[in-house]
Amino acid sequence: MDELTIARSLFGSSLAFHIIFATLGVGLPFMILISEIIYQVTGDRDYTLMAKRWTKAQAILLGVAIPSGTIVGVQLSLLWPRFMEVVGEVIALPFQIELFAFFIEALFMSIYVYAADRLSPVSRIASVFLVALGGGASAVLITSANAWMNTPTGFETSDGQITNVQPMQAFFNPSFPSAALHVLVSAWMTGAFVIAGLAAWRLLRRKQGYREVRYHQKALMMSLAVGGIMSLATAWNGHAAGQVLYEYQPEKLAAAEGHFETQAYAPLALGGVVDLEKGELVGAIKIPWMLSFLADNRFDAVVKGLNDFPRENWPPFYVHTLFNLMVGIGTLLMILSLVSWIIKWRRRHREALPRWLLWILSSTGILSMLAIEFGWIFTCSGRQPWTVYHYQRTAESVTRATGLGLWFVLFISLYILLFIGTILVMRSYFKRHPLQDEWKQIQAHPTERRW
Amino acid sequence: MNDPLLAISLVWLFVFIYAILGSVDFGAGFWSMFYTRKRDTQAGSIANRFLSPTWEVTNVFLVLLVVSLVGFFPAAIYTFGMALLIPGSLVLILLTIRSAFMVFHYSVQRFRDTLDLVSGVTGVLIPALLVSILPILAGGFIDPDTHMLQVGKLFTSPVTYAYLAFGLASELFLSATFLADYSREADDESTYQVFRKHAVRLGPFTLLTAVLTTLLMGQEAVWLREHLLDQRLWFILSSLCFFIGYLSLFWRPRDGNKARGIPRLAFTLFIAQYALASFAYGRAHLPYLVYPYLTVEGSITNPEMLRYLLISFMIGMAILVPGFYYFWRLFLKDKRYLHQQ
Ligand code: HDD
Ligand code: HEM
Ligand code: HEM
């Protein structure tokens, strides 16, 4: 492998690792907030208990989210110094503001975790709200930087020099609104499905008390409701993101669809692989006219094909598969939550959902997280060979330093170690703090106030 | 003050804040390791009580430092990125291990000893690597052709070790003084005595290493030593703060039941000491960011971006200061937190 490939693999892996914890850092506080509010409305202590237990999990995750974020933040400058020069000139603002979001999240997370017993219910909810706000804001802000890489605006160039910088225009670049919303709702969706998946997994256990079943049941139905709504929002707004591609990054859309010939009434391709020799997509199911309609709301919209672009600017073709998988998972999860609620409604008087459904539901968390990964790899790899679209190539932005291979091995080992460590610590923590103990504690202090 | 000077002053301020917070934070990790092995004192658990809620906030200051460097001095990133790839990546790995283990430790009380060991050892290694950036920036260790760091030369040069000795001594000295103050706030006089003793021993040693570093510096960076001598006045003021602060560790407090020393005053004066000295060091380092490749003037961003960055800083700080205050009250002031067992 040459140094450029190593740099790309190293950086991509770091982000792929960070994004797991970062997405949960946006999604879980949102679920904690919702259950704290449901508790205030219904007075059902199970919901504060959920909030409390998820907070414990989130505190553990934060121990990896923060350093892994620090890694990507610093690695950007270490591996892509020429890119960061441009960032500093044009799009430094979101990075800068993001820090304040980090501060808010870190401050109030510490407060919520280490001082919860000394806070009134109002300040406790205010603290989770600020944690959720900080996490959401950092996701939106980092997405502004990424959206700018896809649709760079807010500067001009003369003789290779950057001039006439407009920081606000760069910040609010054309793909920012759709991308920011998409990242936010998909993170909330993922937070919900991760909880749903774990609750379903718990419900599959045969030997447990009625109270535990009820507890997991509540968590499951609540997260399926949130997840269902959010997956609807994700799909609807993903459609808007696709239309931005049509307008601003036609190569990426073409690669995502394996679309070679420029044409009106273009078909939507599901599945299949690109045969580079023949220059076409083989083995795909094609839905006539659909791509044109999705891209511009008209069947006669002309969708540019890859043959219209110079070959050295073609993105890699696996992005077609990634795109299909992301959209497929979104659709599947949307249907699953709807079906679950219908079944639940029809079996009101019986206990849990049927076991076959629980088996399927227990995989939703992992599926949703995979969709996040596929989506990001799709945006970043679909932008290739550019780091900043039509301005700076990836090969120009990379460091000239050598010997990256060693770091690649070290960092990958670190990620594997941390991943295993996190799972072990989670399991050990929840094993030694079973639900029964928590209920006993609640009985010992029955007087917790509401507002 | 012109734009580049304003920007570099802000960056200096962040370096300084991180240096103090980092010293206290990493130092607390070290002391916590040192004393959980000796189970007869409370010192380890006091250090841990401070560390648990604060390391995340300290870490954000490190990120703030990197981000503001990118924002204010984009033209410097290439040189920084090339020169600091190795120490930077090492710091990242160690920092990650440390943070993860700190949280794991809090959640699972098993493996206490291993976890304490990790936080203690990284609490020494990370500051050492960070301090080694100073001699790199002062010149002599970057290959003029490839712009890559000459690692071998860096770690065989006595200058580097002088910097390291100074950095580590300062870290332990500052954190011992801080923890002395923190134990007094928690009304734990026996722990106070433990940390005061360390502060008293380490104080003169830090001074010694500082003088040694200045002497050896001439080997690689004559220019810096000459500039430093021009800043004599600041260094004299700084030493004055040190001496008064050091003396105050021996004064009797008004409350006759307490042991010797006024740690709050001492810690405040030591911060002033380091502020003055590092300000002087920063001034002496001008006009260079990285000698001789980068100057402050030559690396500054465009005026439009600078204006937006400064405005966003002011707004952000206005929002955050109340948050910091609340945090401080809950964890550094609230007797219910300080007194828990
Ligand atoms: C749970 C995760 C998830 C799900 C179910 C979906 N997405 Fe997505 N998608 C993301 C998570 C995501 C993401 C990881 O958050 C991305 C990566 C970059 C971004 O802005 O959001 C993304 C990017 C992304 C882009 C690329 C934007 C760009 O490169 O500028 C498009 C066109 C879509 N999505 C469209 C969709 C459609 C039509 C979906 C239909 C169901 C869909 N996404 C479901
Ligand atoms: C969509 C992608 C991303 C999302 C949703 C996201 C979100 C988050 C969240 C929620 C945290 C935890 C913050 C805290 O608790 O303090 C975090 C940490 C961090 N992230 Fe990311 N992040 C993303 C990508 C990135 C990228 C690409 C970078 C690099 C520029 C980055 C830099 C950081 C840094 C530096 C931290 C640590 C901050 C600290 O010290 O507290 N993130 N991120
Ligand atoms: C967090 C989820 C993300 C993942 C999983 C991800 C994944 C990747 C991958 C796989 C690559 C290598 C692409 C290739 O060479 O084919 C890459 C490159 C890159 N990404 Fe992302 N990315 C993410 C988010 C971001 C964000 C938010 C930013 C912007 C701040 C960003 C900036 C970059 C840069 C600068 C490169 C290197 C240059 C380039 O290949 O264009 N990434 N990323």
Automatic annotation (TrEMBL), chain A:
<dbReference type="GO" id="GO:0019646">
    <property type="term" value="P:aerobic electron transport chain"/>
</dbReference>
<dbReference type="GO" id="GO:0046872">
    <property type="term" value="F:metal ion binding"/>
</dbReference>
<keyword id="KW-0813">Transport</keyword>
<feature type="transmembrane region" description="Helical">
    <location>
        <begin position="59"/>
        <end position="80"/>
    </location>
</feature>
<feature type="transmembrane region" description="Helical">
    <location>
        <begin position="404"/>
        <end position="426"/>
    </location>
</feature>
<feature type="transmembrane region" description="Helical">
    <location>
        <begin position="92"/>
        <end position="115"/>
    </location>
</feature>
<keyword id="KW-0408">Iron</keyword>
<dbReference type="GO" id="GO:0016682">
    <property type="term" value="F:oxidoreductase activity, acting on diphenols and related substances as donors, oxygen as acceptor"/>
</dbReference>
<feature type="transmembrane region" description="Helical">
    <location>
        <begin position="317"/>
        <end position="344"/>
    </location>
</feature>
<keyword id="KW-0812">Transmembrane</keyword>
<feature type="transmembrane region" description="Helical">
    <location>
        <begin position="356"/>
        <end position="378"/>
    </location>
</feature>
<keyword id="KW-0479">Metal-binding</keyword>
<keyword id="KW-1003">Cell membrane</keyword>
<feature type="transmembrane region" description="Helical">
    <location>
        <begin position="219"/>
        <end position="236"/>
    </location>
</feature>
<dbReference type="GO" id="GO:0005886">
    <property type="term" value="C:plasma membrane"/>
</dbReference>
<dbReference type="GO" id="GO:0009055">
    <property type="term" value="F:electron transfer activity"/>
</dbReference>
<dbReference type="InterPro" id="IPR002585">
    <property type="entry name" value="Cyt-d_ubiquinol_oxidase_su_1"/>
</dbReference>
<feature type="transmembrane region" description="Helical">
    <location>
        <begin position="179"/>
        <end position="199"/>
    </location>
</feature>
<comment type="similarity">
    <text>Belongs to the cytochrome ubiquinol oxidase subunit 1 family.</text>
</comment>
<dbReference type="GO" id="GO:0020037">
    <property type="term" value="F:heme binding"/>
</dbReference>
<protein>
    <submittedName>
        <fullName>Cytochrome d ubiquinol oxidase subunit I</fullName>
    </submittedName>
</protein>
<keyword id="KW-0349">Heme</keyword>
UniProtKB/TrEMBL annotation, chain B:
<feature type="transmembrane region" description="Helical">
    <location>
        <begin position="233"/>
        <end position="253"/>
    </location>
</feature>
<dbReference type="InterPro" id="IPR003317">
    <property type="entry name" value="Cyt-d_oxidase_su2"/>
</dbReference>
<dbReference type="GO" id="GO:0005886">
    <property type="term" value="C:plasma membrane"/>
</dbReference>
<keyword id="KW-1003">Cell membrane</keyword>
<keyword id="KW-1133">Transmembrane helix</keyword>
<feature type="transmembrane region" description="Helical">
    <location>
        <begin position="57"/>
        <end position="78"/>
    </location>
</feature>
<feature type="transmembrane region" description="Helical">
    <location>
        <begin position="265"/>
        <end position="286"/>
    </location>
</feature>
<feature type="transmembrane region" description="Helical">
    <location>
        <begin position="306"/>
        <end position="328"/>
    </location>
</feature>
<keyword id="KW-0472">Membrane</keyword>
<feature type="transmembrane region" description="Helical">
    <location>
        <begin position="199"/>
        <end position="218"/>
    </location>
</feature>
<feature type="transmembrane region" description="Helical">
    <location>
        <begin position="117"/>
        <end position="141"/>
    </location>
</feature>
<protein>
    <submittedName>
        <fullName>Cytochrome bd-I ubiquinol oxidase subunit 2 apoprotein</fullName>
    </submittedName>
</protein>
<feature type="transmembrane region" description="Helical">
    <location>
        <begin position="84"/>
        <end position="105"/>
    </location>
</feature>
<feature type="transmembrane region" description="Helical">
    <location>
        <begin position="6"/>
        <end position="36"/>
    </location>
</feature>
<dbReference type="Pfam" id="PF02322">
    <property type="entry name" value="Cyt_bd_oxida_II"/>
</dbReference>
<keyword id="KW-0812">Transmembrane</keyword>
<comment type="similarity">
    <text>Belongs to the cytochrome ubiquinol oxidase subunit 2 family.</text>
</comment>
<feature type="transmembrane region" description="Helical">
    <location>
        <begin position="161"/>
        <end position="179"/>
    </location>
</feature>
